[in-house]
Amino acid sequence: MTSHFTERRVLLTLVVMILILSGLNPKHHGVWLLEVFPVLIGIPILIRTHDRLPFTPLAYRLMAGHALILMVGAYYTYAEVPLGRWVQDTFGLARNHYDRLGHLAQGFVPAIVLRELLLRTSPIQRGGWLLFLVCSTCLGFSALYELLEGATAFVFNQSATTFLATQGDEWDTQWDMTMALIGAITAQLILAPLHDRQLHTQTSSYSGSSARAHSKTTKIACLVIMTTLLFGQGPAMATLEPASTTPATQGQIGQSPLQHEPLGLFEGTAFTITTGRCADCPTAPQALWYFADETIAIPAAEESPGSAAQPPFLVWLGSPELIPQATFATDHAHLDVPGRSHLPFRLTPKLPTNQSYYNEATARFFSLHPLRLRGRTGSTAEGPLFEARTIWPADFLLRPDLTHIVEADDHTISRLIENRDRLAANTITTHQLWGKSAASWAGKPVLAAILNGAQGDDDEAHGGHFGIVTGRVGPHGEWADWIVNNFYDPDVVSEKGILPAMVPMDNYLMDLNSGQSYYRPSGLLVLVLKQDRIPAAYQANIQDVFRRFYQHELDYDHSLLNCAGFSIDQLRTLGWQIPLQGPSNRLKATAGYVYMAASDRSLASGLNAYRYFSEELTRLLPRITFEAIGNDLLHLLQQSDPQRELTPFEQWLREDVEAVLYVHIPQIPSSRAMGTYAVASLDEYQQRVPSDRSQWKTVAVPPRPFPAALRVAPVPVESATIPSSVLALTAGCMFGLVWLGRLLIRRR
Known about the structure:
The chain is of the alpha+beta class. Among the domains are: 2-240, no CATH class; 321-393; 414-478 and 517-581 and 616-695, no CATH class. The chain has helices at 2-22, 29-48, 57-76, 82-91, 98-121, 128-155, 160-163, 172-204, 208-211, 216-230, 285-290, 360-366, 412-418, 420-424, 505-510, 533-550, 563-574, 586-600, 603-614, 622-638, 648-656, 682-688, 724-747; strands spanning 271-275, 295-299, 315-316, 321-328, 334-337, 340-347, 371-380, 383-393, 403-405, 429-435, 445-452, 465-472, 483-486, 501-504, 522-529, 657-665. α5 packs parallel to α8 and α18 (586-600) packs antiparallel against α19 (603-614). The radius of gyration is 33 Å and the shape is elongated. The N and C termini lie far apart (136 Å).
């Protein structure tokens, strides 16, 4: 008895210690409390009834093990327990199965406890009826808990799918009850002999009167309380934390894209998946209007406005499902997915106006890489298939061992951009321009700038495209889930279906219609950082810009405020003093105004030409923006200007940057002509295009009228103005003509 008593004290101490540790910093404090509530109630009850109704050592050991399962699930939440994730990744499973373990224990442990209570406090004897009653009771309590989960979801006004932690499995309830039944049967079949021996020892150690000393009421109370405690399985409770899944359809192939990976700096579980037609989304209706028929992610719980930790209010996902691991079969018409070989797939339909699309060359390129795909489950007469919208090479990784070290100067970034050998190659390459040696960048936050090159068959796109990126390097160097802050003109229907939005990197580059990599190469300038404060500050600022942008408080203007201007303005607002480079040429601006106004017979056309030549270059041309950021950063880190007075943000850059990388991202072979690098000046732009503008290769796009009912500001009415330099030139010309006229009159 003494040894058993000591063991019980050790088990109690261990459970209490783990309980305290689990509550120090759980993922969600409210969830933790709900999950461990049965343990908090059970411990004092077991202590209180110990003298009158001590359980066998086997029962106490099982109860301690069940408490451990509950506490681990409470600390991480059931869908995020690392052990379950490891099993999922190792065996290619569709979900984290840790909650299945919990429900197995929900039958396994109470079966022994109930068996002991029935044998010691009732006339029921060993045999078939005991087995049947224990299994039925366990199954009944499992069903009761499923009902309680639904009731709790209703009371807390949560979405049923979100709250119940189904992880996309519509048969989750049935599976939970099945696991409890399997646990109850297995425990009795395996442990009954050991349990009977301990029961014999237990009862012989106490006098008959002592074993029966407590009243009938006490027996019943103990039975009810103990079963309540032991059936306290809590996977459902864990989902008070915002869920990341969408309601699954029967036979769904992919998993939720937010289930096991972040979005930028934020956990995927901080978001929920919907479309722009959602009726109760906290996102502004102006933003939702653009994404009416698109799959988006929005915060599952609204944070305080202006918080640096506030998740983006809208991320354009494009697709509701993700296949994280796959390869092409030899026929290029099927996928080999862990756990499912030779899975049929098809491509998302091509937009009629899109000039670039997947072809056999694309298939050959992707057949050389492991893949991750975004899309949705479709069906044919032969069965389900996966309709891919985004295909991403899963071996696009950021790792020190895959990086080339280069000595950087003021021209290095420009040379890397224009490297024709690299532009022609279908390979990704990474160069370290500055930094410290590192074994891994896994888990490190990043701030990055992306420069897309010139399109090969669109004379309006030689300037390229620009965006600022935030995120965190994945465990193996992954960066497909970084967030690109992508600005496009919202008032036109792009020929490639591009929408201005915060968007995951793989969707931004590899969407089969709008993906930048299908029609031009790209360069990525990456700042690997020690902590989150720099990218968090930028993301918080740019989110407010997107709000104003969707509400038409800010207008997209190619000459005054475009993708480069939106992006670099926020860096300067934060305190990064990126040097100005001035306008292209004010004389050309004046001449351009006169020429375009005269040729097009439009003052507005003349004003537009004037703006292009007079605008600050770092706000106008993506490549200039890209190089200005990179070169100034290198100067800052190398402390090449000791006289420079640093702002707090620039001091952060000096303190936090661990490496500066340049990543060349190849153009994916497709039906589209191969592109090249973006121009570095308007003069270079003019050299690339035909002098006769009517010969330019362009794609006409229709307007996208913004509903008047959604406007928060009146429609701006811009009257064509005449720049002061043009007025001065005109006044000078008029004065010269008057002077010349008077001179001629005098000579007569």
